[in-house]
Amino acid sequence: MIRVLAIAALLLGVMPAAALASEGGGGLINLDRSIVIQGINFLLLLLILGKLLYKPLLAKMEERTQAIRKSLEEAQAARADAQREREEHAAKLQAAYAEAQAIRATALKEAAEEQRRLVEGARAEAGRLVESARNEMAQEVTRARQALRQEVVDLALSAAERLIRKSLRDEDHRRIVQDAIGRVDKVN
Q1: CA–CA gap between residue 129 and residue 122 (Å, rounded)
Q2: Does 163 map to a domain?
Q3: In a domain, 170, yes or no
């Protein structure tokens, strides 16, 4: 690259000078030793600048290119890792959601079963309470009837005793028996 530049600079510098010198006029550039010295100086300057500036500049640019390339590769790797982690988190979230749905379904099923057992238990208890109340009422009715019969018997006996004390006539006797029979029929 340096050679190409040097040759181009030399040709650009020498051609116009050669053209002017051949015409014979005293142009801007005379072909004498000073032009050769200037050309050598120019070439030395190109060589020195190439060694001191151009090569380090190219090395720095290459180093910078490599650093940028490395940064891009790291960024792509980080992006790929982030995408993979995002997908893993999404899968974990989906699994957790499915597990929560399963737990919820199990809890609802257990709650429904418990509710059914409680309702059945309450119905059974209500049936026992109703049956117990019926039995108790039947016993109370039976006791009340027995007590009423006993009272009727006692009343009949006391009425009979009173009648016996008084001398009863047939009409009184019939009326008392009719009264007792009516009371017994009302009780039953």
Answers
A1: 10
A2: yes
A3: yes
